[in-house]
Amino acid sequence: MPGRELAYWQAHVEALHQEMQRDPTVIVMGEDVAGGAGRTDKGIIDAWGGPFGTTRGLIKEFGADRVRDTPISETAFIGAAVGAAMAGYRPWVELMYAHFIGVCLDQLLNNAARAHRILGSEHKVKVPIVVKTWLHVEGILYAIFTHIPGLKVVAPSSPYTVKGLLISSIRDDNPVIFCDNLALLRMKGEVPEEPYTIPIGKADVKKEGKDITLVGMSNMTNVCMQAAEKLEKDGINAEVIDLLSLSPLDEDTILASVRRTKHLVVVDEDYPRCSVAKDIAAVVADKAFDYLDAPIKTVNSPHAVPPYNRFLEHLYPPNPEKVAEAARSILR
Amino acid sequence: MTLKREQLIWAYEMMVLIRRLEESLMDAVAQGKPTYVGHPYSGQEAVAVGVCANLNSNDYLFSSHRAKGWALAKGLDLNKVVAEMWGKVTGASMGRGGEMQMADATAGYMGGNVVVASNLPLACGTALAAKLRGKGQVTVCQFGDGASNQGAFHESLNLSAIWKLPVVWLCENNRYAESTPVEYAVSVPNIAERAKAYNIPGVTVDGQDVLAVYDAAGQAVKRARTGEGPTLVEAKTYRYYGHFFGDKTTRYRTQEEEAAFRAKDCILQFKKKVLEQELLTPKDLESADQRVEVKIAGAMKFAEESRYPTVEELLGDVYV
Ligand SMILES: Cc1ncc(C[n+]2csc(CCOP(=O)(O)OP(=O)(O)O)c2C)c(N)n1
Ligand SMILES: [Mg+2]
Predict the structure, then answer these.
(1) What's the CA gap between A87 and B110, in Å, rounded?
(2) Among B36, B155, B51, CA closest to B108
(3) CB atoms within 10 A of CB A281
(4) Beta strands of A185-329 (E only): which ranges?
(5) d(CA A17, CA A131)
(6) Cα separation of A132 and A29, whole Å?
(7) Does residue A20 contact residue A90 with C-beta atoms inside 8 Å?
(8) Which residues, at least 6 apart from B244, have a Cβ–Cβ distance to it below 8 Å?
(9) Complete DSSP assignment for A90-149
(10) CB of B132 within 8 Å of any CB in chain A?
(11) Peptide bond preceding A156 in cis form (omega within 30 of 0)
(12) A5-190 shares its CATH topology with A204-331
């Protein structure tokens, strides 16, 4: 019997819901995460639950103390989430879109990533905070976060992985940047009802293959899977790795795969310069150079401002054909 | 509100301790010892001491880059503070924080901060946690006149007001942000007036008068503790030395101005008042002075004799 299917956003709400039930220190804050700030006094009980519904229904069950609408003050409320974490709570806080990071990076760079270290010696202070953010073409920006020591960065690729990674992220004692890709919002897939975790720092070999390794993350894992199908028709058997965690990076799984397939393409929707893809290419060049039969290829978005134009937008990010072409070019 | 005898002695001794520690660090640096002075606090001691006299050890305090005095007044162990200034493993943050990033959550001292106004959002957070927990803990957040021009200040005051957070915003107006005078950079004559924009009380107090600071902060702490929400307290004060140790102040201040503020020195004023009003005796003050010298000598020796952290200790704990 096939398992229960949920959309990505529903799997997200379910994870939050189950963790809030399990642990009373889990609190939710962000712009419109309740929606209307819980206006039961006005007879309104079916709150908005965020622009994409990923917190829908939570205020009804957990109340306005634990599900908190914030003003549009990312510096103040993301910093407040860090402070609440230092004082014993486990905030899940939403930065609506990743490209809004410009107005509040300081709180993550200088406070969230460091407080546990500075307050180190005797009384351990931890910052168990999840900063959840939507990524879309306007700003993928993984590299801004992965560059910072002390932050963990995860990027689910499906309804199954969003639930497991979110539960792991909430339970983790470190600050975790949770990168949700808007392209996945309505993706459907099997999701077990009971809570489960997916280890942070561990990649998943999603499809085994012997000729070439394709590394993806977030929606690019799905693009790699489609590229692998195309390649299969050309008689090329590709292995696909779903990174899941961008920081810390599971070097072992990548290196083990490349040592077998001797070919590597890394697919990353972020800008190319100093990206996770380029970083992985550097790691492999450094640690498995002798195993490679061809140069490493990376497929990123262009190093250019994303077009706000629906006819051009689809040309901008990596797609299955671009990935397949990169693979063919090193297997010729 | 009046301070009891032992509190008066505590306040005096703490002001002298902060002053004398700074002078001792200056001497040590002059002798070529491997320590540093950081951001001088001499002249402003009454503010940290007057505020912290109102706090319990489970109340939270966030300080700024000008942090040593606040750390001590909040109850951080002197040995740990001094060892941190020497970069030793016995320091409050194992020698990896220095003045600005040493902290000790056991004392409720949540650290200074390198980034001006970066601490205000954090204070909203511990105050939110305290409010949810409901045990009456108060958060105090200290920052300078310069910090009140940051977006983080305005966002945090608004957030604290709409959520009625148990926090005291403590602006230490020492008239300068580095070399930039307050009347040039701040749009209002009294920073406390900015509270109006957020519909919270704002008070300005003479920051060179420890008893006045104690009272003003005390009312704000009481408001926070009883669930009435945040207050902005502005303490007008003056730093005697440069922005950092070695900074030449005469490039941006007049000697007359410096002399005028030194004439109202917080320790001298306090002495005069308690002796005139016979709240304390000359003997009380002398014994406090002596205790301070012994403590500082002990702490400097402790720091000098402690070992440095290893490379592993300095670089470890990227994650908890
Ligand atoms: C965001 C930021 N900008 C600039 C600096 C450099 N800086 C350090 S202290 C300081 C002056 C701060 O003035 P004020 O807030 O009045 O505090 P004070 O030094 O007088 O105690 C400046 C500009 C900084 N640390 N952080
Ligand atoms: Mg100043």
Answers:
(1) 10
(2) B51
(3) 20
(4) 188-190, 204-207, 212-216, 238-242, 245-247, 264-267, 297-299
(5) 16
(6) 10
(7) no
(8) B37, B38, B39, B40
(9) EEEEEEEEGGGGGGTHHIIIIIITTHHHHT-SSS------EEEEEEBTTB--HHHHHTST
(10) yes
(11) no
(12) yes
So which residues of A are the catalytic ones?
74, 136
CB contact under 8 A, B96 and A120: yes
Beta strands A204-207 and A238-242: pairing type?
A: antiparallel
Task: Using DSSP bridges, classify how beta strands B167-173 and B139-144 pair: parallel, antiparallel or unpaired.
Answer: parallel
pLDDT at A311: 77
- Give the pLDDT confidence of A290-303 residue by residue, as tens digits: 999 999 999 999 99
Q: Side by side, which strands form the sheet with A297-299? A: A204-207, A238-242, A212-216, A264-267, A297-299
- Domain regions of chain A by residue span: 5-190, 204-331
Handedness of CA A242, A247, A251, A252 (dihedral sign): negative
- CA–CA dist B13, B11 (Å, integer): 6
Position B97, amino acid: G
- How many Cβ atoms sit within 10 Å of the Cβ of residue A178? 23
Q: Is B110 on the interface with A (CB under 8 A)?
A: yes
Of A71, A91, A110, Cβ closest to residue B162: A71
Contact residues, B window 201-260, toward A, CB-based 8 Å cutoff: none
Cβ B164 vs Cβ B227: under 8 Å: yes
Joined tokens for residue B50: 């007057």
Q: Which fold has domain A204-331?
A: Rossmann fold (3.40.50)
The architecture CATH gives domain A5-190 = 3-Layer(aba) Sandwich (3.40)
B170 near B217, Cβ under 8 Å? yes
B319: tokens are 């994650």
CA distances from A329 to A265, A296, A324, B124 (A): 10, 10, 9, 54
Task: Select from 1.20.1250.20, 3.40.50.970, 3.30.1380.20, 3.30.365.10 the CATH code of B5-314.
Answer: 3.40.50.970
Gap between the Cα atoms of A149 and B320, Å rounded: 12
- Convert A132-163 to b/e letters by CB count within 10 Å (16 or more is b): bbbbbbbbbbbbbbbebebbbbbbbbbbbbbb
CB B161 within 8 A of CB B232: no
Residue B318: CB atoms within 10 Å: 13
Ligand 1 pocket residues where CB is under 6 Å: B 65-66, 114-116, 143-147, 174, 176-178, 243
Which conformational region is residue B121 in: left (phi greater than 0), alpha (psi within -120 to 50 degrees), or beta? alpha
The shares of helix, strand and coil residues in chain A, as percent rounded to the nearest 5, are 40, 20, 40
In sequence order, the β-bridge partners of residue A92 are A28, A130
Q: Which of B116, B253, B261 to mutate to test the pocket of ligand 1 (most atoms within 8 A of CB)?
A: B116
Instruction: Find the DSSP H helices in B38-133.
Output: 45-52, 68-73, 78-85, 98-101, 119-133
Residues A227-271 pLDDT 10s = 999 999 999 999 999 999 999 999 999 999 999 999 999 999 999
Query: Is-above-0.90 flag for pTM?
Result: yes
The confidence score (pLDDT) of residue B210 equals: 98
Spatial CA neighbour of B170 closest among B160, B180, B184, B181: B160
In the predicted model, is pLDDT for residue B272 greater than 60?
yes
